[in-house]
């Protein structure tokens, strides 16, 4: 794994050297680095990136909103008083479980019938 990472770092270093030796001096002299086709490709990729970023932002907002609604609903359900005593009811998710399913090959029904 170390050799793979080292090879990648060397490749990035060589690519940076090529850009430094070719593209930077050409740009300083006023020559265009990319052709017209290259400029179109870069603009297409940039606009595609913006679309993906906007879509991801919207999807994240929807999921966050849904999660907050679910948490609020769970909190409301857990805090509702009972009609007869006025005591608060614990949520089923917070209640500890007292039974465990068998871990061997017997089914749960066989376990209950035998026990």
TrEMBL record:
Protein name: Uncharacterized protein
Compositional bias segments (type: Low complexity): 74-87
Basic and acidic residues bias: start-end ranges: 101-115
Superkingdom classification of source: Bacteria
Segments for region (Disordered): 62-115
């Amino acid at each position: 794994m170390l050799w793979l990472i080292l090879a990648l770092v060397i490749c990035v270093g060589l690519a940076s050297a090529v850009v430094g030796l070719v593209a930077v001096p050409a740009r300083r002299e006023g020559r265009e680095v990319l052709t017209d086709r290259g400029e179109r490709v870069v603009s297409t990729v940039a606009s595609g990136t913006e679309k993906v970023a906007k879509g991801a932002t919207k999807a994240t907002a929807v999921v966050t909103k849904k999660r907050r609604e679910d948490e609020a609903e769970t909190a409301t359900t857990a805090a509702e008083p009972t009609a007869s005593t006025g005591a608060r009811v614990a949520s089923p998710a917070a209640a500890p479980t007292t039974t465990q399913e068998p871990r061997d090959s017997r089914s749960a029904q066989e376990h209950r019938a035998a026990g």
